[in-house]
Design brief:
Length: 173
């Protein structure tokens, strides 16, 4: 009887190297978050799933089911807009990444569409190596087959291997 009790109480050895060490410290489902500064809305964010990984060396926030983000910098009447099927934000590095059907609309109304987009918040630049489509508010369109580098407000950009269409009024020629 004593042998059975001792055999049943022996602990099983666990390989600690194969255990998952990254897990979310906070999880939000069907989130709608509004950031305000001095009483004014700065960001309005919606996401089906937000996971914050704060208990690691380089904390980050992941949006595995995508996000929609309106941001306000100059006018409450014309917010900027960002959407992606997946996103990851690292506040410590000031580095943001969006993947899958990424759409960025600046406050003027110009639209950028691509599959992958990176934003360096410190440098205030966005960039990608994927095919990019830029459609201006006036209807002009540009396509870049090898990516772009741009200011984050799309006021200036460099396209690589590009082509496009410019619309002119009859009196402009």
């Amino acid at each position: 009887m004593l042998g059975i009790i001792i055999a049943c109480n022996q602990l099983e050895e666990v390989d600690m190297t194969s255990r998952r060490t990254e897990f979310p410290s906070r999880t939000f489902n069907n989130a709608k978050i509004i950031f305000k500064d001095s009483g004014f809305i700065k960001i309005h964010l919606k996401s089906k799933l937000i996971e914050e990984y704060g208990m690691i060396d380089t904390p980050y926030t992941e949006f595995r089911q995508g996000l929609e983000l309106k941001y306000f910098t100059k006018s409450i009447d014309s917010p900027g807009y960002l959407r992606a099927d997946w996103a990851k934000f690292s506040d410590m590095k000031a580095w943001y990444e969006g993947r899958g059907n990424v759409v960025l609309i600046n406050e003027v109304g110009d639209t950028l569409k691509t599959e992958t987009l990176f934003w360096d918040r410190n440098l205030r630049k966005v960039f990608t190596n994927d095919t990019v489509y830029i459609i201006s508010k006036l209807g002009d369109s540009l396509q870049s087959n090898n990516g772009l580098e741009a200011k984050d407000d799309l006021s200036e950009y460099t396209l690589y291997n590009n082509q496009g269409t410019k619309i002119y009024e009859e009196g402009d020629l």
